[in-house]
Amino acid sequence: MYVNPASLRRAAERRVIRLLMAGSARSRAELARRSGISAVTVGKTVDHLVSAGLLRELERATKPPRRHGKTMMGRPPRLVTLEAVTPRFFAIELGVRETRVATLPVAGPTDSMWRKSLKTPRTPNTFIARLGHACQTARIEQPWGILVSVPGVVNERENRILYSPNLHWTEGRSLLAKIGTLLGAGLCAVQEIRALALGCLARAEHDDSFILADFGDGVGSAVMSHGRLLEGPLPLTGEIGHTPVPGNTRACGCGGTGCLETLLSRRGLLQTHREQTGSADADWDSFIQHSRNQPLKPWLRRAIDAAATVVAGAVNVIGVRRVVLTGELIELGDAVVERFRKGINAAALWGRFGEVECRGAPRRRFLGLSIAAIQRILLPELPHRPGSGSNSNGA
Ligand SMILES: [Zn+2]
Q1: pLDDT > 90 in the chain, percent
Q2: How many angstroms separate the alpha carbon of residue 268 from the centre of ligand 1?
Q3: Whole-prediction pTM
Q4: How many whole angstroms from 255 Cα to the centroid of ligand 1?
Q5: By the number of CB atoms within 10 A of the CB, which of 97, 195, 233, 312 ranks highest?
Q6: CA dihedral 341, 252, 210, 187 (to 10 degrees)
Q7: What letter does residue 376 receive in the DSSP assignment?
């Protein structure tokens, strides 16, 4: 089989970056050991990535290294990290209620990074005007790219928002094109749940296959399989929120009836809470206070069980044994995650042989966008054969 040497080099570069994303600074020898790539190749790869500005070499430690309590002979190894100082990318989280924008170095979000947030406007022109205003104080010279996380159904390859039930005015190509023109760089759209899955991947060196299910303004999921986001022929993967739940008669924004999203989105949860308590003006904060760390109400148990069955169906079809839950729903406490874990294990075939792991995690969307920057802008996958096209966004 023909293997393009350039694509092997690229695979080594992506592997090194992935190891550095997961943790702290590492020496070349450590990177070689953890990646299984030869020390010579790792050395060349690191040198190349340092000269390209993706990695930074740390000053040599002043103390000689110690191993097993003994001082080692020779010079301490030089450690490398991802470049975490110079802002290179604009990152934008386009949200239903709030939009956040930041400048990111290659390493992803840092405590000291520039960031702003704005209430999401209702028209493209107002959005561009407010974004331009917000970005006036951003100090970034010749940005390497713009990453935008967007809700809804997105064609990432064409930077086109196909359908956005909560933000119809963003649909089409023109908003994203205008953002690119405004900020003066190439733009890369990432569906918002897929951005979360990339952020989750970045922090887990060995955990590269999972389903991430997010419960927020909408309900959706993304599938990570061997470090790659699952791609389907349609731009509609992971749409668990639009699976109907028997007995649920609520109308959904998608035009369907009884979708899971109408029960477990922020709006759906609040609607049931209001119906159950008779307090029509209860807001989200009062719902959280009322429910946090309390035994789960019967209606919430039923809704979670329905969601767990849908997720278990995905587990059965895709063949992964880890589920990560993110979003506002898990703010209600550990009992939510535990209920999911039991429900998924009761319904997934893997639950008969082993355990489907289920855990809650914070949303790391900016981190996911920085992974997208590496995978799609800095180190895109190269064709494996002469003449074949690049075919994936995966790592
Ligand atoms: Zn729906």
Answers
A1: 73
A2: 12
A3: 0.90
A4: 6
A5: 195
A6: -150
A7: I
